[in-house]
Design brief:
Number of strands: 12
Distance between the termini: 53 Å
Helix content: 25-40%
Radius of gyration: 19 Å
Number of helices: 11
Strand content: 25-35%
Order of helices and strands: HHHHEHEHEHEHEHHEEEEEHEE
Length: 299
Amino acid sequence: MSTFLESDSHRAEIIAYIAKGQLPLKYAYAGSAAHTHDALAQLETYASVVGSDEVREVASFLRGHAGDQIVEIGPGNGRHSAALLATAGHYGRYLGLDFSRTLLGIAAQSLRSGGVRADTALWDVEQGPTTAIADWRRGPSPVVVLFLGQTLGNVEDVPATLRNIRESLRPGDRLLLGLSARVPGATAEDYLAPYRNETFRRAALEPLLAVGVPADAIDDRLGYENDEVVVDAVLRTAVTLDDAELAAGERVRCFRSRRFQAAEVVGLLADGGWSTDRLQLDDTAGRLIVGAVAADPDE
């Protein structure tokens, strides 16, 4: 499949970020990259990273909130979400939110095929709060927001993202995070091994290819730094993208996946206006499920 972007604005944004040396991962889920992500999400190595076993734990939680409306930020290709909701026996209202129109369409098809009454809306959770949840919700009852599959570990600014979610909700609404945790005694290679495949490489680099960086001009470097799995694209040759001239040797960070500690997440949530009331850590598998309630700023 040839590469394509969802909009001209994405092209300008991606080139500007490349020139700065730091490309947010959200662009690796948009346009043609959404189809590459769909293929990646079906690999066993991907499931080992994002935690397909979180279905059991999250479904158990949702059974206790069977009447609640569910909002999911970043449902991916929708297959994980459909399996989760089926396991939980949830057949109520569901809203899927994503930065990528293309990936959201793939997710909606998977969810509706699985019997989910899925509504969808666009939201770039890294840019600011949204009114989409307030417009969609019905009545005074709380909503449950799912942010699973280690997606929080991919954003550029974790504290700001948690605040954006909180400011889009009412006091008493709930947030459930599915995260990758640090594993005691793990080596860098333990963290990197699941990423050593061509499908992941293509997914990480596709935004650069889509704006015209030649594949043979990229030397990709996979590493583990400061508790993050990262991919840097290093240019082998000079490249010109519209008005941006990039020299050989320039480096662009195009993938990040942070590994969390439980106490760190509790602190980040508190700073973002959340009160943690559920924490389940499997530090052997590196899985962390955290539940929180949106605090009342007036209390």
